[in-house]
Amino acid sequence: MVPALFGSEGTIGGAERYASELSRAMSRRGDSAVQLIGYGDRTTETVVGGMVAEMIRGWKVRGEDFNRIGAGVIPYVRWADLIHCHQHHIMSSSLLALLGRVSGRPVVATDHGGGGFDFSRYLDTERWFSAHLHVSEFSRARSAAVDLSRVVLGGVDIDRFQPGPWLGDRHRALFVGRVLPHKGVDDLIRGLPSGIGLDVVGPLVDERYAADLGRLAEGRDVAIHGPVSEEMLVTMYRNALCVALPSVTRDCYGQVTEVPELLGQSLLEGMASGVPAVCTTAGAMREVVADGVTGFVVGENDPDALGASLRELHGDQELARIMGGRGRKRVVQHFSWDAVADRCVGVYRSLLP
Predict the structure, then answer these.
(1) What pLDDT, on a 0 to 100 scale, did the predictor assign at position 17?
(2) pLDDT above 70 covers what percent of the chain?
(3) What's the rounded mean pLDDT across residues 158-183?
(4) Residue 125: exposure state from Cβ atoms within 10 A (0-12, 13-18, ≥19)
(5) What is the rounded average pLDDT of the residues 312-329?
(6) Region 110-117: what's the mean pLDDT?
(7) I want to staple 298 with a disulfide (CB 3.0 to 4.6 A). Which of 167, 190, 305, 324 is the partner?
(8) Nearest alpha-carbon partner for 96 in 112, 107, 110, 88
(9) Residue 155: strand pairing partners
(10) Confidence (pTM)
């Protein structure tokens, strides 16, 4: 169960993509029936990431798009042996946890960093769930019910994101993500060395920040693309010098984001594509990138350190190629969706009679 699945009618967020990829990997196992459910404005079917999803009509809680409830979920509760909610702090997940308690069905939750108006605003709902499946140790450490928590990590499509040949001199770093102040793109631009370019890919969510980045990029080899197609994104990863995610807890405006990165999806996609990764110590990214092995991990709010990492990779293309190869192996071993599915199923089985 995910907060919403809009398909072609809107956007699909991280929770929806995670749930659809995980469901697809579980279906490939062939040892269980998997049903992906989401809420929308009407009852219909849609396809997300190759997985058929049932979208049931849901009413918005206090007008929140990604916080809906609907009675249409009840038949699926009766069908299920176990329910996995992909978002914790929303009304639907809390109600499903209560229904699970009443009906004797385990209900587990994965926190993807979002949420809305919910009982958890007033009550500790952590123990309403049978277990919490976290995408990182960083996420698990923030849980109030650590004894119910397991780390299953996040995944990446290792067939879609694959390395290309390392030909010639690569000289462009790549940032992929929502362009928000806590992503630290301004630090990346400030630290960009001469002779190295930067491609910024992703929705320009914050107008003020996008305008400030545009001014900061003047006179530098920086291209701010906005969203691109999946095909273009795959190509950009394969041809990049490195993937960079310079997220910060305190951004350039002094605002604090307590959870800047629960994992770091673009790092996984870049590493799966055979390129090294450059990130900061913010959030869970140190769990993804092995410093000095698959890339470089630097302190937050440090443009000079980001620039030094880019300069070293650009100046030693063989090192960059080797680090990219190690990153690909690390992702295949720990972060494939099949591996995530195996961990989830292990927890499911421990909860079932």
Answers:
(1) 79
(2) 96
(3) 94
(4) buried
(5) 97
(6) 88
(7) 305
(8) 107
(9) none
(10) 0.90
